[in-house]
Amino acid sequence: MVDEILEMELTLTSDISSSDERNKYNFVIHSIDYTKEERTTKKSSTNTQEIFDLTNGMKLVSQVEEEIQETEYENIRGSIVSKATKVRKETITVDEVVRKISESFKGRALEAKLIFESRQYEKEKLPPISEIKNFIEKSMQDCGIQGNELTIENANKIYGKFSGLLRRKPATPVFNKKVDDVIEIQTCSMRALTERYSHIKQYITMFFSSTYASDMDDAKKERLENIRDEIMGKQVKEVNKYNYKTPVDVVFTMQEPEKKFVSYLVSDDVAQKIDAWIKARDIGFYSIDYQKNKGAVFKGFNPDFFIKIGENILVAETKSDGDISEENCAKYRAAKKHFELLNAELAKVGIQEKYYFNFLCPSDYSAYFQYIKDGRIFTSNFHGVLEDGLEKEDNK
Questions:
Q1: Helix, strand, or coil here: 276?
Q2: Are 351 and 30 in contact (CB under 8 A)?
Q3: pLDDT category, 353, cuts 50, 70, 90?
Q4: Interacting residues of 202 by C-beta distance below 8 A, sequence separation 6+
Q5: What region, left, alpha or beta, does residue 21 occupy, with left being phi > 0 and alpha being psi -120 to 50 degrees?
Q6: How many Cβ atoms are within 10 Å of 285's Cβ, its own excluded?
Q7: How far apart are CA 162 and CA 390, in angstroms?
Q8: Which domain of life is it from (predicted)?
Q9: Which residues have a Cβ under 8 Å from the Cβ of 4 and sit 6 or more positions away?
Q10: Which residue intervals of 268-384 are DSSP H helices?
Q11: What is the pLDDT of residue 91?
Q12: Can you tell me the mean pLDDT for 310-321?
């Protein structure tokens, strides 16, 4: 057993491996060098009739009707065993949603002007069922939702859209970011991260390749094996080398959202769809400035994951379910704006690369990775549960 002295002294480092097997998974990502300029906005008057522009659909939460739920348990031999179960979500048909909305219109005048593609409706003029259905189907198409069914969550979002007035978001002073230059960041330049055995034992789950011995020197291999033999169980994930498509020799995951996300990345059906990925450091690798409000100090955060698929880069920030906060709202706003600007700048200089950013929680993972597997991640605007919550909070 590891004694108290060894527990204090034993460390393990997560680093970019120099082995040929790991090196082939290094890639280049792009960012923007900014200067900051302040601008102000004015509040709009809210004394006029509210107008719903329904010509472009609405944001729904990307969905799959079935998801795999994994349960881990200890068998009689003391080994950790995983069992996967396919669970079907509760859904409702589009026609039923349309019927309920139509019923809600009866007996009352509209409180706002509704603008559909064909015409406008207000007061006593109610939109026909066909207009409502077209709006819902367009919203589903934009989000990559297939078939004729909606999850209860998405159905409730649609009901809410028609049930009353939406409050206008008050404008607030913000800082503009002026683009100076597009810069390259090499994954091979990411700094190493060293953790003590005591911290690993208490908080960290380790992922490494089945050929880890060739990814590190003998001394590090011995330290890894010592720690592995001590903690075992759910905190040690030895991955098939063909699924472990990252340049990092040992990946440390700190919380359940990170652990679960990496578990998806190294699964058989997802790994075959991606070229490479990297879990970024919390500091100093790819920083995005954000500001909670005017006058506040600018802070920086590093998105958790970068996933390369062809000429596309998926970027994911992972949080716990329901982690809605002012801080996360600010991060989400800043990151969405950053990658929109980055894509525009890359297009200007002829770089054939596009970035797709998402703020995700474990409840989003099943749909997110299904979208990766079937390609919808690039053809629809993936919109997860956490992003939906952040946008609602931001619009209060």
A1: strand
A2: yes
A3: very high
A4: none
A5: alpha
A6: 18
A7: 21
A8: Bacteria
A9: none
A10: 268-271, 326-348, 362-374, 376-379
A11: 81
A12: 97
